[in-house]
TrEMBL record:
Residues 34-234 form the Peptidase S26 domain. It holds the Pfam family Peptidase_S26. It comes from the Bacteria. It is found in: Cell membrane; Membrane. InterPro entries: LexA/Signal_pep-like_sf, Pept_S26A_signal_pept_1, Pept_S26A_signal_pept_1_CS, Pept_S26A_signal_pept_1_Ser-AS, Peptidase_S26. One of its GO terms (cellular component) is plasma membrane. The active site is at 64, 142. Keywords: Hydrolase, Membrane, Protease, Transmembrane, Transmembrane helix. This is Signal peptidase I. The chain crosses the membrane at residues 36-59. Its main location: membrane. Residues 1-26 are annotated as: Disordered.
């Protein structure tokens, strides 16, 4: 006789959700720890590639570029994104704010001592790999005033720098409060090809082509020593904005607003991949 009653599931036949979930969770954890080294290597590789070929964040350590770039004492110095691509196709032009390696005749008074703690040294080295500024880098930031083939001199009757006998239009020029709004004069100088004459925007608080190496030819910067063009201030947030590259040798006709914001847009586009990459690595560690 056939029993038509439905078969009753035995307790042992019922699948356990806990038993099925455990291997999956263990597998996920195992996969994470296997992927973590690869993720870190890829992140560092991308960061190194970006800072070598595309752009890097630099710290402003001095007041020489006030008020375009803040680097004042006892304040948070600006961090600027430096474009390394532009000068692969063209040379620096008058008005560009550039970061460059200090020539042998230049002396940097703002280099900090290397950290003595091995842990601090290691962290500083790791930071330099992903583009964080190092305190002991012998790099400078100044504005290009004259290029190879031009003759520069200061000053005319109205205390203006002249290039090839024509006065410059310098709306970015800054004088510290309480100091005379007069530039220090210097002798006429013909700039050789492949060299740049640079000045700080804080005109009387900057040691630049006028005084480095005692001035003259020793104060010039080789084009080959230029690292890149400062495009945008990325930190602090209250100072976000593009870096002026007004050409002082021409009187601007007034560009449309959208064109003036192009450097800012390019800078933000270039800065975000670095910030997002760091955030993703940090989130992975937290998990």
């Amino acid at each position: 006789m056939v029993d038509d009653a439905p078969e009753q599931n035995q307790p042992g036949d019922e699948p356990s959700s806990d038993a099925s979930d455990k291997p999956a969770k263990q597998k996920k954890k195992g996969n994470f720890w296997k992927e973590l080294p690869v993720l870190i290597l890829v992140a560092f590789g991308l960061a190194i590639g970006i800072q070598i070929f595309l752009g890097r964040v630099y710290m402003i350590p001095s007041e020489s570029m006030e008020s375009t770039l803040h680097g004042c004492t006892d304040c948070y110095g600006d961090r600027v994104l430096v474009d390394k691509v532009t000068y692969r196709f063209t040379d620096p032009a008058p008005g560009d704010v550039i970061v460059f390696r200090g020539p042998p005749s230049w002396q940097n008074d703002f280099i900090s001592a290397e950290p003595g703690n091995p842990i601090s040294q290691g962290l500083s080295w790791l930071g330099s790999l992903v583009g964080l500024p190092s305190a002991n880098e012998e790099d400078f930031v100044k504005r290009v005033i004259a290029v190879g083939g031009q003759t520069v001199k200061c000053c005319d009757e109205q205390n203006r720098v002249t290039v090839d006998g024509k006065p410059l239009d310098e709306p970015y020029k800054h004088y510290d409060e309480g100091s005379p709004a007069e530039q220090e004069s210097f002798e006429e100088l013909k700039i050789p090809d492949g060299m740049l004459f640079v000045l700080g925007d804080n005109r009387n608080h900057s040691c630049d082509s006028r005084c480095q190496g005692q001035g003259g030819l020793n104060g010039l910067v080789p084009v080959d020593d230029v690292i890149g063009k400062a495009r945008v201030i990325v930190l602090p947030p209250s100072r976000w904005g593009g870096v002026s590259d007004h050409n002082p040798q021409t009187v601007a006709m007034g560009a449309p607003g959208w064109q003036e914001n192009v450097p800012l847009g390019l800078g933000i586009v270039g800065a975000w991949p670095l910030l997002l990459l760091g955030r993703r690595v940090r989130d992975r560690f937290r998990r």
